[in-house]
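User: quick one, fold this
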Amino acid sequence: MKIKACVLWETGKPRPYAESLPLSIEEVELDPPGPGEVLVQIKAAGLCHSDLVAINGERAKPTPIVIGHEAAGVVTELGKGVDEFEVGDHVVPAYVASCGRCEMCREGRPALCQPATIANAAGTMRDGTTRLHRNGTSINHHSGVAAFAEYAVISKDALVRINKSIPFEHAALFGCAVVTGVGSVVNTASVRAGQSVAIVGLGGVGLSALLAAAASSAASIVAIDIKQDKLDLARQLGAHHAFNAADEGFIEKVRDVTGGGVDFAIETAGSPRALDTAYAVTRRGGTTIAAGMPGPDAKFTISHLSLAGEERTLKGSYMGSCIPSRDIPRYLSLFRDGKLPVDRLMSRSIGFGELNEALDRLDDGTTVREVLIP
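Assistant:
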């Protein structure tokens, strides 16, 4: 079938993206779903920092590629052997189509699935092939989803059925921002009531983490960013303290209001400076969690003495250490009950023609979550 999609033909085009136009709106051909695959009509797709770093080349993907990995949609066709879904189901895809059989999957860590990791790096489906092409040229899939399009063929193993009452533009955020941010608090950190948490970086992931800390009854929630409007929003969403990382001496101020530092500091900005900040505001015996995803050359230096002598813990968190089939329905239930107001993270809805301009806003940090409505 022929569909409209946003294709990235080359990485590293200069800013402003509204002028260089790295995403090209094309008519492409999409093959029908193969065995174990599902055709999904994309109803909403969030614009995420992981899309931006693929576009600017910081964490490049093989091109040409249809970008987008955070989405919600409707099942319209089933491939052979798919009996877990029905046409008409509303679904959210996870951006790791875990196989369920590799060592990581068997250990209950599907975000680290080896076959899915290899496929995502190659820009293919898990079988090593693609379903997208144009004029005889194969087009790759971003994280097995390729969401900036009218339709996508997605592995059944990536899909989670959701309640049809949930608006697509809100449900889409649960495919990345929410599972990553909420999961970093609930799964990776296992924050308990009465503990203290700092969130460094207040994009969609960071603010989702903040909402989770509030829902977990954290006694002290500290928000850290360089954008005052995001700090203001963080206070509205439950932060007890908000500090601008551009202000001199802010780290000492965080330590002062938290009695020496927080139990858990979660970095979601994807920069070594942010991770350094998170480590600096973590108390003795506390845990620093890296949930942001910078480029492969980003380095972080810590004191060996503080790590050992203060019994610190430094952990990574990918996809919020989530099991999507378990966690996405849980988080959606919290949303429906008003305990996880993810809808407040939406900045605006956009169309295909506004995507490149939206990349500039995302890169400037002046937006939280913009959602494409194809």
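User: anything notable?
Assistant: The first strand starts at residue 2 and ends at 8.
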